[in-house]
Amino acid sequence: MEQNHSRKSENAKANALNQLDDLEEIQEQRSPVEGGLRQGGPLSPFLFILVMEGMGNLINTAKAKDCIRGLHNRAGNNLEITHLQMTP
To answer: Which segments carry the region annotation Disordered (predicted)?
Structure first.
């Protein structure tokens, strides 16, 4: 019985090593990422605006459906803050 357990353990190790080899081959076949969007790059402000416009619309829709509430000020006017958009 112990010999059978040892054989199963060796087979499991061999299978795991084969799977690792397969993963390494797949990773080598993929083309590496050579670019990207860097902080402070020329596209960063555009990307920020693009994302914040979509997020602002989602927040406004949620507010209109009474899913969220904004902050009311104590001055008594109708100013209500639901979200702030800014960059450092």
So the answer is: 1-41
Tens digit of pLDDT for each residue in 48-87?
A: 889 888 988 998 898 889 888 877 777 777 777 777 766 5
Instruction: Specify the pTM.
Output: 0.46
Residue type, 38: R
Q: What is the CA radius of gyration of the chain?
A: 28
What is the rounded distance in angstroms from the CA atom of residue 44 to the CA atom of residue 83? 21
- Transcribe the chain into DSSP letters: -HHHHHHHHHHHHHHHHHHHHHHHHHHHHSPPP---PPTTSTTHHHHHHHHHHHHHHHHHHHHHTTSS--EEPTTSSS-EE-------
